[in-house]
Amino acid sequence: MGETSRPWRVVAVRRLSEAQLAELSAVADVEYFEEVTDENRADFLAALSRAHGLIGGKLELDEAMLTEAPALQVVSTISVGYDHLPLAAMNRRGILLCNTPNVLTETTADTAFALIMATQRRLVELANRVRDGEWQTHVGREHFGVDVHGKTLGIVGAGRIGAAIARRGAMGFGMPILYTAASSKPELEASLGARRLELDALLAESDIVCLSVPYNDDTHHLIDAAALARMKPSAALINVARGKVVDEPALIEALQRGGIRAAGLDVFAEEPLLARSPLTAMDNVVATPHIGSATHETREAMAQLAVDNLVGALAGDGPLTAINE
Ligand code: DGY
């Protein structure tokens, strides 16, 4: 970056520790917003209009806001996904975008597996029965779950997170692994015996379909009514990717009529999920509030990588993980 505009000015939003804010403050004047709300939005926009760097989780930024931020050079998002950011407009302006891959891979795969376990074994539904005092006799067939071990696990999008889910399935639970990917993954095939299939064949063969693709124009409603119809009625759908990868009304319809058996969902078309969504009231749905990477350790590591990216981009040798360098 150029040397002309020191000191750097940075706007930071959410999820940064005091130590991380101190690191930023060593190279920049930092304006920190714990949250951007209707009350402080004008202050946030004023700060952004002066800023060279923007860092935070769940950043709300659109093309119009970029126009009002003429000095902005770097956006460092505390997330691996960046579908919420206007990348094309940033590219036109030459604004660098950094994200936080790798550090959340294993934790997000853990979340996928938690959802797999919970949906197969009906953990939430049955634990709620205990909590509600409804455990009066031994559990009968109507409350039996479905095995996890040995079931065929279909991974839609075998990138870093998909591969980590596949490892858990194959090595921990003896699951045959199917996957889709733009190109074959020889390491997954050699180490796990994974088989690459076209999406339609994967949907038809899998007992559990796990979505771990980035959200973009190509993956919008990738799982629509036709895709759901290809799944086994006994199958479960797990989504730790983005809500809009699935046509949510079509999923609700499939779950309601038994087109598929269950769903474990960490992401939704609109977040937070409205309490009145049918998904919140279905026993065969386990819904979690977008917690894929939400552990103390991983959120700390993500925030640190985002800080390192921003400091590296503005005042150092460059970012560690940039999207559009
Ligand atoms: C990510 O990092 O993209 C997670 O989904 C959190 O938004």
Detailed description of the structure:
Residues 113-292 form the D-isomer specific 2-hydroxyacid dehydrogenase NAD-binding domain. The chain is α/β, with parallel strands linked by helices. The protein folds into two domains: 8-101 and 297-315, 3-Layer(aba) Sandwich (Rossmann fold); 105-287, 3-Layer(aba) Sandwich (Rossmann fold). It contains twelve helices and twelve strands. It has helices at 18-25, 41-50, 63-67, 87-93, 105-121, 123-131, 160-173, 186-192, 199-205, 225-230, 248-256, 296-315; strands spanning 8-13, 28-33, 53-56, 74-77, 96-98, 153-156, 177-180, 195-196, 208-211, 236-239, 262-265, 285-287. The strands form two sheets. A seven-stranded parallel sheet has the order 8-7-6-9-10-11-12, sandwiched between helices. Strands 2-1-3-4-5 form a five-stranded parallel sheet, with helices on both faces. α1 links the parallel β1 (8-13) and β2 (28-33). α1 (18-25) packs parallel to α12 (296-315). The model has no long low-confidence stretch (mean pLDDT 96). The site of (2R)-2,3-dihydroxypropanoic acid has 6 residues, from loops.
